[in-house]
Amino acid sequence: MSHTHTHTKPNLTSNDINRSFIIGIGLNSIYVVVELIYGWKENSTALLSDAVHNIGDISGLLLAFLAFRLLKVKANNTFTYGFRKGSVLASFINSILLAFAIGAIAWEGIQHILHPVPTSGTIIMIVAAIGIVINFASALLFRNKKDADLNIKAAYWHLMADALVSLGVVIAGLIIKYTDWYFVDGIVAVIVAGVILFSTWSLFKDSIIGILDGVPSNIDTDEITHHLLEIKGVKEIHHIHIWSISTNENGLTCHVKIDDLENIPSIKEKIKKELEEHNILHSTLEFEINTENCNG
User: Fold this and answer.
1) Could you tell me the pTM of the whole model?
2) What is the DSSP letter of 247?
3) CATH number of residue 156's parent domain
4) Residue of 80, 125, 132, 256 with fewest CB within 10 Å of its CB?
């Protein structure tokens, strides 16, 4: 069997993830308070709406943190996989929250265009610049782990989205400072909302696929089948089903046709090893002899 492929994923440890979520939630909570204070003081709807958006993202971080903790719940007779599927549901909720945030940003942007409100461009720039630093720094906490779990991916994109929003507010503040074009912050908000929508579409799609037990987007069924058929003794692979058990675990069931049932132990070991290369750690295999006619 000769093929090369890599399906490595970041190594997740509870301590690293817990620390990342706690720091991210803490920093963003402090920043929301700052935005609310200066937004109210300076009558800046841009800062106030961004604060509301950040509150929504803090809720998303809390949901993602909860989902990660659910992965640690032990299985029982009723929930034989534990609460792992809850992490997929949480990622879906995260994507919906982000969609509402995008809608809120776009709505506020339109309102600012139609009904400009005089405000201090300098204060907007300073506060928003702080937001860029905090959100970008928080996002970096999840950058190396975002491809290992949908909820960590959600946290990463939430924070990057906030950094983009803050950048847009800084630009708007700069223009307002030197031109008094108060409608500019609304235009920037609508543009940023579109950027966020584009960048987070895959998160929504992946969570829907997970809820409906579809094949995860990072899994190629044909590739897996091809590699399994390269294992000596495997004649045919059929009735293959692959789904998400959680946001970072996949399952598989399939029928494996072989020449000699005595070779099952060695073939099973090779199949399990191959599947692990594709991030499939839970598999159920049904073996058949080559002359058997399988109807289902």
Assistant:
1) 0.71
2) S
3) 1.20.1510.10
4) 80
